[in-house]
Amino acid sequence: PVPVPQVGTNLTDLRLPRRVTVRELGGCMGPIWPSYYSECSALLFVVDASNPTQVSSSCIQLLSVLSAAPLASVPVLVLFNKIDLPCYMSLVEMKSLFRMQDVVSCATQPITMLETSARDGTGLAEVLQWLRSALREPC
Length: 139
Description:
By secondary structure, this protein is an alpha/beta fold. Helices cover 27% and strands 22% of the residues.
């Protein structure tokens, strides 16, 4: 199916190998995101890499999430999505626009970045591998 922008909240269960529930909250739901932080074990933050007009608001939302106390030690995966579109900005461009080097150096949580395409599946294996690693049971 063709991906559509998320405007509400969706729950999806994955087996990694244990069952993990993924809660997807659309960008317009930003004001209520904090009500879900206490339940969060890992965070996937998706950015539309094909939409330069959204970069500044996405960056502000990311900084807000990273500064939330309940998420101070939660591992974060920033996904620069829609790399299948001809107008997408490369990982190098997105890192520069987001000043990711500064963000990572100031953040309390570990941050990883990947390029993805929800449409053609590019990067999906790396996302699942990151999730497995981030959600690994402590010894």
